[in-house]
Amino acid sequence: MATSSTRQATQVFGLGTAICKDDATITGSRLPTCLQVLRCMMYHCNEAARSIRPGSVGAASRFSTAKLVLQQVAIFYNKANIPMVTERRACENIDELLNENNKLRLINKCRRNKPSTLRRLEDSQRLLASTFKLWPSNVKSLIKDQEDLAFLQSMKGDRAATLESLDTHLKQKISRRTSRQEAEAKRLKRAREEMEATSSTVQSASVVEDTVKILLLKRALFVIKKKLVLLQLNHKQRKPH
User: Which of 2, 25, 79, 89 is in Cβ range 3.0-4.6 Å of 85 for a Cys bridge?
Assistant: First the structure.
């Protein structure tokens, strides 16, 4: 395997520069390209071929290696909020990508300059430069956020959008949501204070009303007592001596 220092000097037909340790990890600010996934898969296949799994004989299976690569790809899809196909389907796609490139690289050197081979190489390069597709066919109906959908459309085409732009959009959404929540909290606080003030006023009015009723009742009792006293006096005066 070529090292990082010899990578630029070594070219592989249908692939470009030779595989090196840099290909172990997929990096970037967009969904991975087919080339990134292919190179990562090839690196880990090479590593697996040289290693022995504990408790078994031979290198790890291609499917296990594809799962390892898929874990890296899934990070980008999850960050972009793009739904993915099942794990098995995704691993099959990764394995198929490797198989197709293997077929291209196995073309005999004497045939590599033929028009048919050059067309095939051109198609392969176009594919490798495109986004590695792991979204389901009904992805548009699954994505609700328009920014996420716009990002996916960019990944299908010119790949101009970046995950940083999604992060900015997410921060703006969170900021707007926070502002709405703060405004709602203030509104509820004002409403509660107004209700408490109204309740206090009603209670005060009720106390005054009760006090007036008590005073009127006392006055009525006083008048009644006074009348009773007068009646008693009149009654005594009318008695014969």
Answer: 89
